[in-house]
Amino acid sequence: MASTGMDSAVPAKVWSRTAAYMDWAQMLTGAILILFLWSHMILVSSGIIEPGAMNAHDVFVERTGLEPVGGPIMGVLFLFHFVHAARKVPFRLDLQTVFIKHSRMLHQGDTWLWVIQAVSAMIILIMGAAHM
C-alpha cells in the first residue's frame, strides 16, 4: 500500500460551536454589509437620475439623525466582519505557498474563486476605509 503521508493515529481536530457561531456572525455581517453597499450605491446614484430624489433622501437622513448613528454602526460592522473573515485567510508566506501549491494540485475552480474573493475583499477593505 502506498503511504499517503498522513498519520492515521493522530485524531482529527474537533471543532467547537464557537467556530460555527463565528461563521454565522461572518455570514450575517457580510449580508448586512452587502445590503448596505447596494442601497448606498442606489441612493447615491439617484442624484444622477433625479436630483430632487437625492435632496429628499438627504433631508430624510438629516432630520432622522441617521448619519451620526449609521456611520459608526457600519464602521463597527465593517471591522467585525473583517476580523471574522480574516481568520480564514493565510497571511503568512509559508501558508500562502502551501495554499497555492494545493490549489494547483487540485485543479479546482472554486479554490481560485476563493482567492479572487479574498483579494477583492482586501481591495474593498482599503477603499472602504478611505471612503469612510
From TrEMBL:
GO terms for cellular component: membrane. The chain crosses the membrane at residues 27-49, 69-86, 111-130. This is Succinate dehydrogenase/fumarate reductase cytochrome b subunit. The keyword Metal-binding does not apply. It comes from Oceanidesulfovibrio marinus. It comes from the Bacteria. Keywords: Membrane, Transmembrane, Transmembrane helix. InterPro entries: SQR/QFR_C/D (IPR034804).
